[in-house]
Amino acid sequence: MRYFIAALASHRVFANILLAMFFAAGGVAAFKMVRETFPELEIDMITVSVVWPGADPEEVEEGISRKIEERIDGLEGIKRYNSTSMENRALIMVEVLENYPVDEVKDRVRNAVDSVPNFPEDAEKPIIEEVTYSDQVVMIALYGEDANEKQLKEWAETIEDELREMPEISQAAVVGAREYEISIEVSEDRLREYRISFAQVADAIRRDNLNLAGGTIRTEGEDIRLRTVGRKYTGAELAEVVVLARPDGQIIRLGDLAVIEDAFTEDPIVSRFNGRPNATIAVLKTSDEDAIAIVEQVRKYVQEKTQTLPEGMHMTLWGDTSVQLQSRIDLLLTNGLIGLTIVFMLLWLFLDLRLSFWVGMGMPISIAGALAIMWMMGATLNMISLFALILVLGIIVDDAIVVGEAIYVARRNGAPPLRAAVDGVCEVGLPVIGAVTTTIVAFIPLCFVGGIMGKVIVILPIVVISCLSISLLECLMLLPAHLSDLPDLSRRHNGETRGLLRFGRRFHRMTNGGLEWFVDHVYEPFLGEMLRWRYVTMAAAVMLLLVSYGLVYSGVVQFIFFPKMDSDEITATVEFPNGTPLAVTVDAVDQLEAAIHRIAARTETPTGEPLLKNMYSVAGTVIAPNEQARYGNHLGSVRVELLGSESRGVYSED
User: Fold this and answer.
1) Rounded distance, CA 183 to CA 335, Å?
2) C-alpha to C-alpha distance for 569 and 26, rounded to whole angstroms
3) Beta strands per DSSP E along 88-235
4) Which of 386, 421, 578, 647 could form a disulfide with 484 if both were Cys (CB 3.0 to 4.6 A apart)?
5) How do residues 124-161 score in pLDDT, each as one tens digit?
6) pLDDT digit string, tens, across residues 212-228
């Protein structure tokens, strides 16, 4: 081992090449890695949804939910399932066994559901989907004082299409707005007048609202495809559908029998943004799209699009989840610079200027190497991985400090520069390897945590282990080469009698004397007594361990895996029994809004800015961040965007 370390320490060019490779790989990874709030998750859940218009929960349970339960019960790969029967709809959530192929279970569930022979006649076709996590990046509110629902819907869909055309964005959706629907209200008096049954009307609509392929006519010049285009897309087109043609030439059209309206689905949705009618466009991302790049592009688009909107209509960007991500990146950079500065200053004052520089370089080298490893593994820069990088900042420089100090002591004791580097590494190399390895081993079990929580935190041990591994490699291979020419520490060098270097020398002599006195007169005698009474020392250590365990076990020190974090958003939800009129829900949502305004009015922020930035309320549905929307007149919610936590001075939980 000594020969290997000597070979590395004597080839500084090789060390510099490795150093450049680490920084180059880390720089490429930093620019290429996807930035997102949370990593992509495979939730291992399947949903079976069946819509039955007009049915109450008891009918849904008897006619749909129990029949599906009987079919999927006992299927291989299913851990558990839960069915919910509600008005007009049945929802069955199927949880897949861990590490079991979700696609296989999905196919089995689909076959089982398709084999149900007697679903209610009016029930719609079952929809079977795998639950996926969609990372919502930002929201765009489109609102206006006098804008009607149709106008807002049309502009929102136009904005949605334009956003999807951008290279950075592939996912956008209009939320909190009703779907289009053509309603046909047939008059019973008209049916009797023309002696036509309702079934004839329905059959005529079904027959004339089709696009049919008619085959191909092959000629010498070309092949001609035959196709009948009959699908209707507007109420005016449907009004021209011929319901009955009599022998006397009388033609009865649908418009003669019914009132036809181009409108929206029957269940209304009342959506407001800061008290004004609105339509909201949610911008989401896929696993290979960058959240911060998406927000930058959307912000630029909103600024340009606002100039083309009709008078009285406005667009506002809100719900930006990339703010927390960017703040976490800034925190990492700030902490890294502060830590690097502190390490450099302390080592310079207590040891040597060159040693402090190269020991401090271990921090950026480790981060760069870890970023390169993460990039090659397909990981992303997210809240969890950035937390891991911030966590490990205070650990990765410890081994380099120990090795650097050993080299410093060997050089101060008179060893030649190269020999001092080799002696220092050989003296503390194995203890350093043991210390770093034990830390790595402590994080390895986190790689095998099961369930959704395990999928969330698996990146944390990967980042920590990568940083520690690169740090160990740097202190054993690169640091000896860069410290293999330390000057004679017992001799004053030219130019070191002025300025900071002179101050450093004086401080170094003063602190060294104080530290040596402390070691000789306090630490060494105390250590001797501890070794002399080693059984008492061991008993005291065991006692502290038991006390620590008792504090946690008794609940004095509580254990919380993920503590509540201060948030810039609050969501309030109201839910009434099925069948509640929409007006009751709207009134409840109004009360929620009024309550939030009262709180904001009596809350003073340190900066004097308003507590509330934006408020989005909706009645007729519940739309929570990153959750599947639920619809019904009995549901409503208010989502409030607060002033940033650093400016408002009030904890969101309070």
Assistant:
1) 61
2) 34
3) 89-96, 127-132, 135-144, 171-175, 180-186, 211-218, 223-229
4) 421
5) 889 998 887 767 888 999 988 777 888 888 888 899 99
6) 777 888 888 888 888 88
